[in-house]
Write a structure and sequence with these properties.
Layout: E1 7-10, E2 19-27, H1 33-46, E3 50-56, E4 59-66, H2 68-81, E5 92-98, E6 106-110, E7 130-132, H3 134-141, E8 147-150, H4 154-157, E9 160-162, H5 176-183, E10 191-195, H6 200-211, E11 216-220, H7 223-230, E12 238-240, E13 242-243, E14 250-251, E15 261-262, E16 269-270, H8 272-275, H9 293-311, H10 319-344
Parallel strand pairs: 1-5, 3-6, 7-11, 8-10, 10-11
Antiparallel strand pairs: 2-4, 2-5, 3-4, 9-12, 13-14, 15-16
């Protein structure tokens, strides 16, 4: 089921995949988060649901996966029958499907914020910017009187972003406040448009800008992922791939699996050019962590354990998701090659 009143996006057809994935966030007043934690964790564990859900007084955020019927039961628990009542109705919910388990364990965590900015004046439950539908986004960002800002971190921007977007060069979202103070002026920048991966950071960022006196603040509804899902590639203003926080690493238009991989030492996303660098060693190091010996040693040991497990015919923790992602990546490359040959013929 979908959440009553939720903004649900489904990027994959509901076929016979054994795992259904739910990504959710909602800014909502949850002053009783401590009482909500244990029942929610028990509900998920009793149904073999795995992943991470973050609860905070300002709302909920996270991604979980399980059998389709288990995820449907969780949706009912969150949006109708459980102790949340109707407080999560209208949440941003995205469903997708997987052939292998995306997560290894279930965690329900209590945090001060569901997305950390450390700016109490940024309260999406009180005020947020103007939502812009993906179909209307191109017209907005092509206006000369609009400043376009990518609110994501530098490693995410490096894989892909919108044309003309400003890069704050942040390594964490908490640094966004410093960027605003140094580079944006409410007296000069009358219209600011922002975007992020799925929309959650922009809700808080837009609330922060409004608290700082900016007059008109816009943000992409559903984030880059929604844009890539619904906007045709020949009309897109997004260049590159979008980093995602799971073993897919990146996606492109139509939410097709991207070509990026992760460095297993520093977790930095790697392009094909990065993998061709002299400092890249599969499973051990990459150009972004070339001088970090401790990380290389830990990664080398992990790689050794994985190799031993494969030699013994055993699966290493996390191997299934990695193998599945690589299999799909190779299938995509093969399909592209077949299309190229057909077009050439």
């Amino acid at each position: 089921m979908n959440a009553p009143g939720s903004k649900s996006m489904s990027s994959l057809p509901q076929t016979n995949h054994p795992y259904k994935v739910m990504a959710i966030y909602k800014f909502a007043a949850l002053p009783d988060v401590e009482a909500l934690k244990a029942p929610l964790a028990e509900f998920c564990c009793n149904r073999a649901i795995k992943g991470t859900l973050i609860l905070a007084p300002e709302g909920i955020n996270g991604t979980v996966a399980g059998a389709p019927e288990a995820i449907d039961a969780l949706a009912d628990y969150l949006f109708a029958s459980g102790p949340f009542g109707s407080r999560l109705v209208g949440a941003e919910v995205k469903y997708s499907f997987a052939d292998t388990a995306p997560f290894l364990r279930m965690k329900v965590r209590l945090k001060p914020e569901i997305v950390t900015l450390r700016a109490p004046q940024a309260d999406p439950n009180r005020q947020v910017g103007t939502y812009v539908e993906p179909d209307d986004w191109n017209a907005l960002i092509e206006r000369n009187d609009v400043v376009l800002v990518d609110t994501r971190n530098d490693y995410e921007v490096g894989l892909g972003t919108f044309q003309r977007a400003l890069d704050p060069h942040t390594s964490s979202f908490v640094e966004f406040k410093d960027y605003v103070e140094k580079h944006l002026d409410p007296n000069k920048h009358k219209k600011v448009a922002m975007f992020c991966t799925g929309g959650i950071r922009c809700e808080k960022a837009s609330s922060y800008l409004l608290s700082q006196g900016f007059e008109e603040v816009f943000h992409l509804k559903g984030g880059i992922l929604k844009y890539l899902e619904v906007v045709p590639e020949d009309q897109s203003r997004f260049t590159g791939e979008c980093f995602v926080f799971d073993e897919r690493v990146s996606v492109g238009h139509g939410l097709e699996l991207g070509n990026a991989t992760l460095c297993r030492a520093c977790r930095h996303p790697l392009t094909e050019a990065d993998r061709g660098h002299a400092d890249f060693h599969e499973g051990i190091s990459c150009p972004y962590c070339a001088g970090e010996t401790a990380k290389h040693q830990a990664a080398a040991e992990r790689q050794r354990q994985m190799d031993l497990a494969r030699q013994r015919g055993l699966s290493h923790m996390g191997d299934a998701a990695l193998t599945d992602a690589e299999r799909r990546r190779q299938q995509k490359k093969a399909q592209a090659e077949r299309s190229r040959r057909a077009n050439k013929g």
